[in-house]
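Here is one chain, start to finish.
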Amino acid sequence: MNVLDAAHGIAHDYGVEVMAGRLGIRPKVLNSQVNPYDPTHVLGLVTAVRMQQLAERYDILYAMADALDHVCIRKPNVA
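Its structure:
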């Protein structure tokens, strides 16, 4: 899975309108940013991080790591 497919999946599974509202952007803008076939809008890194935090899904992170021949391991919760 590539990063744009991952971002698209997170946004649409969570709900573009709901996620956009929580991100403080218009749904149409978010939809364009996560559309792999729309080069006019670019998804920023800060937005990508916030999307993953909201959805509690890290598909974009994993796709980035895979594209760079790395793996991700969650840190243990040290309280």
